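Supplementary Text 2. Reproducibility record for the structural model of the 976-residue chain.

All settings were left at their defaults, and a single model was retained for analysis rather than an ensemble. We include the record here because the model underlies the residue-level annotations in Supplementary Table 4.
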Amino acid sequence: MKIRSSVFASLCLVIEVFGIVLFLRGFFPVPVKSSLSSKSKVSDLPLEPLEGHAANSSRIPPPLFKRVVIMLVDALREDFVFGPKGKEFMPYTRHLVERGSSHSFVAKARAPTVTMPRIKALTTGSIPGFIDVVMNLNSPALQEDNLIWQAKTAGKKVVFYGDDTWIRLFPKHFMEYDGTTSFFVSDYTEVDNNVTRHLDSTLKRDDWDVLILHYLGLDHIGHLSGPHSSLIGPKLLEMDDILKKIHTALISKVKHGLLKNLLKMCVEHSRSNIPLCSGSSQLKLSGHPFALLVLIASYFKTVRIGFETPEPVEQVDFTPTLALGLGLPISQNNVGHLILPVFEENTLREQLRFLHLNGFQLSHLIKDSTPDFEKDPGYEQFRIAEKSHGSWMKLYLEGNTSEVLSNMGKKVLKQYMDALKSMSESLSKQLGKYDMYSMIVGMSIVLEVLFLLLITMAEALSGAAEVDLPLSSALCSLPFYLLCLFCSSIHVMVCTSTESTCYFCSLSWALVFAVIAFFSSLLCVILSIIGRKLFWAKPQMKNILKAQSSDSGFSELDILLLTGTLGHVLSLGASSFIEEEHQTWYFLLNTLCLAVFQDVCRKYFREKKSHRDLDENSYLPSKDDTPTVDYSSRTSALAGYEKWLALVTPLATLVCCRMLRSLNQTGVQWAHLPDLGHWLNNSEHIVELSLLAAASLVLIFLLVQRRCSLVSKIALGLGLLGVYSYRAAVGNVLFPWQQDGRDISKGTVEARFVYIFVLGILFTGAKDLLRSQVISSDTQLKSRGLWEIYSGVVLLAALLFRPHNLPVLLFCLLIQTIMAQFIWKELQYDAAQTTIMHYWFGQAFLYFQGNSNNIATVDISAGFVGLENYVEIPAIFLTAFCTYAGPLLWACHLVCYLSSERERSTAAIGHGCYCFALLRSIPAAAYIILVTALRYHLFIWSVFSPKLLYEGMHTLVTAAVCVFFTAMDQNHAVRT
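Retained model, structure tokens:
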């Protein structure tokens, strides 16, 4: 069965996406959950242990605090309080930390460190999974046992002001609330003012027990300008004044009403830019981002007399500590343990009781998650500590007051703490228990696809651009049925003998057998192709292949493209290279420009050859059926200024790339350094940013409009004007007639105005494409239609890009224009070489935008441009489009370029589609193997796992691009 190369490549990518999804399902484990369906209740709490007698009590000791204020300051780094900036910008907080009645901690936050997973960790005590990153865009109601539900059930009145993620997670849980949308990050004043405006009236009232304040402004400044922005200092002073106001109000309540209050200032995630590999020793050992945790209460009798190094704790440890501090049961799925210094003022009996309740909860979670839980060291230590606790209680109730009782109690206390830490670590390690069966099945499918692409390379890149797949002989053969039987028996053995549940085993038998049959058929097709190539190839076919191989020797550029691609794949095995992957692509792009420069010099300035030599050694557009090019006329045409423009083009590209590198610092090692983007986003330089944005939009129009119809040109111009209007409406840039005291809005009307023109341009382009295929075979009309679709994509990118990133879009279009005019066209690079170059440029521009392999760099605010509320499909599409705008723009330009070149072979689009599929499959398959081998690496969750998500999403985007390639190729084939 013969199919075109583009169709074959698209099918391979679709299959590969399925394999990656299955691998991800096995790689990212489901968080540990309790088997109990109901939530924890006071009546379910264990009795206080007492040896030889009936238990003494089943109640929780009296609560430590009657009223709690939780102040969450998003992205407050620890050095903003404990470092030099603390004394300058947060003097009151620093004074309380050094000399007040407080406890300070540095809380380790496990990946993923985004808002919704961190809120779940703070309220449930469980470690969130990476699936919560996706759910962060649309936070559903939290159904599992949590601190807010326990407080509401106990009759406590909870008031909340801040990030509306809390309201979606805990609907109908708050007595009073006012939410602020966290995704419109261009605003860093109103979001906090909306929280603070309720403070004075709320602090005077006595009708609440828990007050939660979630401030977003500091995080928004970090997104906009980075941690070194001039806006950071005033925002820290604002947060310090708010904490002072709250603390003063609580102190007055203590004096007048004798209430025991707790003020907790913490961070649900920290925007830390400290390198994980070369920072402090703690960071180096843990690999987790750190957050600040300060507990302030008059209940704490120990008063500090100077600054002490904060003690490290886990962020999930806050949940059981606050629950027992409020007299509430601990959440069932909590994996944290008590922060013992908080309870140091309690009696020894109460401390032991708190530890016993925490140990009982953790031991039940151990039972539910570990088949051989009795052999768990932490569980054994807890049972020993519980018996010792019973012996101590017996002596205590008998009235023993000797020093032996005190020493024994301290020993039991230490036993409990050791047991709690051991059980907590054991439960946390459940995240490292992988579903290896699902991973192996997904990996096998991905490897099969890659191997199939490799062994069909000669056919896919031939002049016919067709691949002959022996489907009938493979599916109707005995090996196929034997493979199906063998794989089915393995599936039965794995699913019946394994002690842990596998996702693949939970699927229906019909679906499992379909996957097995598909896997077996792919393997049989691969074996059939190999057998045909090795044993059944005809002599004349061997001669043709030999002639092709002798005529198509690798040039220096081919060797560079091959070694660069393979070198990048090998670099993914090191965490440092993943963190700084942009450096790899910048290096490859610079090397490519120098190689192209050498090619230009060799072609037009150094070599003096005859027309026959030029014809034999020039870069042909395709290896087969290539039309003859008159190089004598080409050389004479380039004798003028055009050859000098060709010479300048790679150098100009180098200059553009160097300028773009200075625009956005990315990665880990140097991301904290100030860059041009930070300078432009400073409020003092809004005039410069406005001029740069306006100039960029004008030049973008000039570069794009040249091949559009008159209607599309008008729509494009009005759309770009709407882009500037949108940015002015949200306060990023200024209109010339606009006053400083302007009103800032969400720009919904302006953004939707641009969307109308985007859809109109896309519709015009699609109409021209349809006319070129159905009504008349007009190549020029088809080329114009493709370019109009491309211009619609450019307009959408201009809308979603931040104003300081508009030069990235401008330089992208400029490089594409000059390279197409003076390099790819004049030097006649073939479709494969041109495709690889486009792929490299697309990868580099992915990082020029400021992206990295850290999930925190994803600009989720792009998903809410023009939306009043969260709408799932548009938000996900816009966020993904903005993130991968660089690769998408270069892929779309490749389609336009290959389709517009009349001198090219009719198979050029098929060759480009196949090369795109191969370029994406090689790193994806290699990285899956690498993360499987490195799954117990120290940085598996902080470095390797986010990159795996990026690879999966990139493969999905590439599959969509190849489907578009296929549509264009099929239309071309029909016309031909």
